[in-house]
TrEMBL record:
Residues 415-475 are annotated as: Disordered. This is NADH-quinone oxidoreductase subunit H. NDH-1 is composed of 14 different subunits. Subunits NuoA, H, J, K, L, M, N constitute the membrane sector of the complex. Pfam families: NADHdh. It is found in: Cell membrane; Membrane. It catalyses: a quinone + NADH + 5 H(+)(in) = a quinol + NAD(+) + 4 H(+)(out). NCBIfam families: PRK06076.1-2, PRK06076.1-4.
Amino acid sequence: MSLAATAYGLAATLPTTLPTTENPSADFSDTPWWLALIKALGIFVYLLVSTLLVIWFERRVIGRMQQRPGPNRNGPFGLLQTLADGMKSMLKEDITPANAEKVIYTVAPLIAATMAFVSFAIIPVGGTVWMFGHHTPLQVTDVPVAVLLVLAVASVGVYGIILAGWSSGSTYPLLGGLRSTAQVISYEIAMGLSLVAIFLYSGSMSTSAIVSAQSSLWYILPAFFSFAVYVVTMVGETNRLPFDLAEGEGELTGGFHTEYSSMRFAMFFLGEYVNMFTVSALATTLFLGGWQAPPLVSAINDNMFGGGWWGLLWFTAKLWSFMFVFVWLRGSLPRVRYDQFMRFGWKFLIPITLAWVVAVAFIRGAQLGFLGDSKLTFAGRELSVATVVIVSIVAVIALAAAWIWDDRRAARAAAEDEAPPEEIDPFAGGYPVPPLPGQRLAEPTPRLAAARQPVLTGSTTGSTSSSTAKEEDHG
């Protein structure tokens, strides 16, 4: 079954009316400003504690994968190891390079760290709860274009990496910053396109409205292809293995943070892990029902285990499932080449996601326009839903075939360019070079004979002189 046909079958169970009235945004009318500040502080503490735990969790899990214990000395099961590393970063000497732009060199890690925290403000981590005498949702704020706000803040966060590379006054950090720029721009396009299907299904860009729209069916099922694309792009956005190309040690000596030390380096470290939580929280919100309980639990008793503070538990469990995927990838996959990574983004992810968005738009247009009718009016003509699905399937297959053809054509061109000549002159570069497999030496020419003659003469003269010296010694 094709992607578009599967999506249509799953989408048939979704509401066929625009969900802007059925799935309203969160109600903040009973939330005073001081309560919003308390929730913001709670989110800040939640992310800091989660960062401390995930660093320990990553070391322990990868240690098990590689048959070694991981941290197990500081505290029970090594739980205090991350705290000890943080204290070490605070006490280390802070060195500023002589050629660095001092102000930007200091501001860059602050930008990278703070932008990741800002994005979490629009994520609903739970349902409506009773807190300090007020009914308030477990969310700092919400706006009609909340998902776009996350993408915008992520774009600003990459300025920290770019400015860090440029202000260090060194070559390798600059190259790491340039790599990060191209990488983030490329994969933000595919990430944004993958989320368009969610907007079409939910009829809203508000995170709380999207969570409400998934009360009957999580969007990971009808938008499964968007979910797969988002998972790839979120790993590329956070500079994690196998896509940590902005800090490749083999060719960049550490990348954009090579010249940083002490707490400035720790800021980049903190920003990377908080950003992992942010993109994972967005995936939980858009594809896994957000804070809502799993279907089996909600079927038992949704009122008891599905709302209020229980939502924070389900949200955290889903969030950490994505964090395990991050750790799993780091312990399993090697780093890809930069040209492979960029080619995959521009020549495959973006075109195929565009085709997917067009297919979903046709399907949702048919559902919302006719409320179950099997006809769709387009340019004054009636088209059946089956026709729309078939056209979408053909478009996706044609795009995939074009990509495969372009891939093979590029491979043939590269093979022709790299094919060694059948006949070589071993002295063409001034030094004798042995032939490669499939090559043969050129026929002797006056030039080749002249090149060989001094070698033969020198060896003969040397052996004659050596014989003469031995005879004189014997005499």
